[in-house]
Specification:
elongated, 635 residues, single chain, nine-stranded mixed β-sheet, HSP90_C, ATP-binding
Length: 635
């Protein structure tokens, strides 16, 4: 207790000023409320701990923390009924900036129970109040004193000078009163403050009251016997003190996880499945991660994971805590081992953060493997939704690839699923080329490339469906990971050349006829970016096939996504196509025997336009001309 008025200077030492400087470097001043409410929670939790250990024998009573404001007086008040402080404790914990009472508290009671959950940083962050206040008052009565007159009042205007005087306070606990400065009057607003409390304090472990709210209750019946209602006022409790992730998985059901998901993301489809994290060694980590159904615009769905420390919201910018390929997950992580100062450079260098990131990767891989082994058919049903996570992980993390390579799946155009090893066994007999290279064929659009898919199937080849937004990168990664394996888009070559064998078809054309046919098609196409060759192909191939090489197309696709390993310039290069004329097709003989040059070019143009049509490249006036010419040829 302070017997009389006392004045002094706040002790600031070079070794303890830096945590406070960091607090002031926060760009968002709203965190002052998070810090003050968190301190109130710490004081309350400590009192409950002392009570459970028999160190405090009084009645705990109502421990609700109260946040209020007075627009006229320009004050914001945070009140708790926790430990409270004596005058000496205020001088020790508040005047000596950044001196934490937690270490001393835990040391004193370390042999009387598990104190790790109440290692609060008493006083740390208190000075963030001066980001918005021109003057701060503390009125506190310690649980150790019996008389209201033994309370103390501390005042400071943000300088290094303070004033400590006796005060009257009826109940145990602490009131922090902020006199808001002219630049921060935006915080003297009910909905602004409620928004901050909802954001940072939604799951704090002690109930927090902020004003009153209306509730509709039944009030008898009307003349027709129908129930009447009236609105009553009740305390507005803004938080859920016992969130799902803080509970044991054994006491939770599926509906509990789904209900909590809706609480976090009210307008989102139900998740596919979830992982409940509960680790206490070698670091502390709890939380629930949900696998959502990912839409095509997956970039817009980032920043859905929220990071907490002892149920205090810290940030939803978790890219250094969660591996990048899992940023599309939803949910909550809570760890006291993640530093409260979440600047990017600090997180990146923090050893615990790196361990947590590695652990999350392992838990996700373990969960996927468990689902695969437990019910393969159900796993296959989920694959279209979860494949983006797995593929992204394979691309970005070698260790993740090693964990998932035995149950990651390929899907073919017939809707069949195969593990990597199963698919290799399926196609190796028919899709190994003359150099011993295994050729995997794929489509990026089954509808647009159907004629090429059918041509490949006619040769007994299987075609994979790789039409996702990151599949161009995934394909490159697979070629690095899978031994002696190459992936080719099904329209990158004529079917006879997709898997090159030592077989060679004889040509029905002489060299002179080949030269003549090439000349006709050069005139009909009249485009220098299209290279015409006359090939000896199967008679069941199309008369003309248009392709872009696998290398060129892949580099252009990756350039569009901002990748391509330094080939970004290729995105601006003109498209170069190969036009393969099937010299063994009957239409070519018709062109050779046509009565005049005009008729030859007309037939060649028709065959070429058919090839364009099969690649969805025939549009506008060219499409109109094709239709008109088709009518003439069949008339």
């Amino acid at each position: 207790m302070a017997e009389a008025q006392e004045k002094g200077t706040i002790s600031i030492h070079t070794e303890n000023i830096f945590p406070i400087i960091k607090k002031f470097l926060y760009s968002d001043h709203e965190i002052f409320l998070r810090e003050l409410v968190s301190n109130a929670v710490d004081a309350t939790q400590k009192l409950k701990k002392l009570s459970s250990m028999g160190e405090f024998t009084g009645e705990l009573g109502d421990l609700t923390i109260n946040v209020s404001f007075d627009k006229e007086k320009k004050t914001i008040t945070v009140s708790d009924r926790g430990l409270g402080m004596t005058g000496d404790e205020i001088k020790k914990y508040i005047n000596q900036i950044a001196f934490s009472g937690a270490t001393e508290f835990v040391e004193k009671f370390k042999d009387k129970g598990d104190a790790k959950d109440i290692i609060g940083k008493f006083g740390l962050g208190f000075y963030s109040a001066f980001m918005v206040a021109e003057k701060v008052e503390i009125v506190s009565r310690s649980y150790k004193v019996d008389n209201a007159s033994e309370a103390v009042r501390w005042e400071c205007d943000g300088s290094t000078e303070f004033e400590l005087t006796p005060a009257e306070k009826a109940e145990r606990g602490t009131d922090i009163i902020l006199h808001i400065n002219a630049d921060s009057e935006e915080f003297l607003d009910e909905w602004r403050l409620k928004g901050i409390l909802d954001k940072y304090c939604k799951f704090l472990p002690v109930e927090i009251k902020f004003g009153m709210e209306g509730e509709s209750v039944e009030d008898g019946t009307d003349e027709q016997g129908k129930p009447k209602y009236k609105t009553i006022q009740k305390d507005r409790i803004i938080n859920n003190p016992a969130p799902l992730w803080a509970k044991s998985p054994a006491e939770l059901k599926d509906e509990d996880y789904l209900k909590f998901y809706k609480e976090l993301y009210p307008y989102t489809e139900d998740p596919l499945f979830w992982i409940h994290l509960n680790v206490d060694y070698p670091f502390n980590l709890t939380g629930v991660l949900y696998f959502p159904k990912v839409k095509a615009d997956f970039e817009l769905q980032r920043n859905k994971i929220q990071l907490y420390s002892r149920q205090v919201f810290i940030t939803d910018e978790v890219k250094d805590v969660v591996p990048d390929f899992l940023m599309l997950l939803h949910g909550i992580l809570d760890s006291p081992d993640i530093p409260l100062n979440v600047s990017r450079s600090y997180l990146q260098s923090d050893a615990n953060v790196k361990k947590i990131s590695a652990h999350i990767t392992k838990k996700v891989a373990d969960k996927l493997q468990e689902l695969f082994k437990k019910d393969r058919k159900d796993f296959e049903k989920k694959w279209d939704d979860i494949s983006i996570f797995v593929k992204y992980g394979i691309i970005s993390d070698d260790k993740f690839y090693d964990k998932v390579k035995d149950f990651a799946l390929f899907k073919n155009v017939d809707g069949q699923y195969f593990t990597f090893e199963e698919y290799k066994e399926k196609v190796k007999a028919n899709q190994t080329d003359k150099d011993g290279q295994l050729i995997y064929l794929y489509t990026s659009s089954a509808g647009k490339q159907d004629s090429f898919i059918q041509a490949a199937k006619n040769k007994g080849y299987d075609v994979l469906q790789l039409d996702g937004v990151i599949d161009s990168h995934f394909i490159n990664t697979l070629e690095q990971k899978l031994e002696k394996t190459q992936l080719k888009r099904v329209d990158s070559e004529i079917a006879d050349k997709l898997v090159e064998k030592d077989e060679k078809l004889e040509s029905v054309l002489s060299e002179d006829e080949k030269t003549q046919i090439k000349g006709v098609f050069d005139k009909a196409i009249n485009n220098t970016t299209f290279t015409v060759t006359v090939e000896s192909l199967s008679t069941d191939e199309l008369p003309v096939v248009i392709t872009m090489s696998e290398f060129m197309r892949r580099m252009k696709d990756m350039a569009k996504l901002g990748g391509g390993g330094g080939f970004g310039f290729m995105g601006n290069m003109p498209d170069n196509y190969a036009v393969a004329v099937n010299g063994n097709h009957s239409i070519i003989q018709k062109i050779l025997t046509a009565s005049n040059e005009e008729q030859k070019i007309k037939l060649a143009k028709q065959a070429y336009d058919l090839a364009l049509l099969s690649q969805n490249m025939l549009t506008g006036a060219d499409l109109t001309s094709f239709i008109k010419r088709s009518v003439e040829l069949v008339s």
